[in-house]
Specification:
The chain has 116 residues and is of the alpha+beta class. It has one domain: HIT family, subunit A (2-Layer Sandwich), CATH 3.30.428.10. The chain contains 2 helices and 5 strands; from the N terminus they run αβββαββ. The structure holds adenosine monophosphate.
């Protein structure tokens, strides 16, 4: 179920190139074009969901899949033990700019808290 004007649906459809690092039946992950850390990967569901606010009870497994992908990616990138962050922004006030949910997986440097 892809949305015509969605950048990440276009990546899923192969219309826009991306450096894909992980693929499963429910999700893909690719490197962020403007990385904020040595490793910055975005994990997205294959199904278009605009924001966290659009999640429904039936999406439980899908959201779990995104985090299991993040765990795998952290191991692949060698940052699982050191530490990493897996976060999702919701709506413009939190910095969401692409309205297809995505988990930012960031690591490879020290990360401070709270984020800006
Ligand atoms: P957010 O601001 O949370 O919606 O995150 C969107 C992310 O998508 C940003 O970190 C952007 O750098 C990233 N981004 C935008 N366009 C692309 C693209 N074509 N390929 C990879 N990452 C992208």
């Amino acid at each position: 179920m892809s949305q015509e004007d969605c950048l990440f649906c276009k990546i899923l459809d192969g219309e826009i190139p991306a450096d894909i690092v992980f693929e499963s039946d429910s999700a893909i992950a690719f490197r962020d074009i403007n990385p904020q850390a040595p490793t910055h990967v975005l994990v997205i569901p294959r199904r278009h969901i605009a924001t966290i606010n659009d999640l429904e009870a039936g999406d439980r497994e899908l959201v779990g899949d995104l985090y299991l992908a993040a765990k795998q990616i952290a191991h692949m990138e060698g940052m699982a033990d050191e530490g990493y962050r897996a976060v999702m922004n919701c709506n413009a006030g939190a910095g969401q700019s692409v309205f297809h949910i995505h988990l930012h997986v960031l690591g490879g440097r020290g990360l401070t808290w709270p984020p800006g």
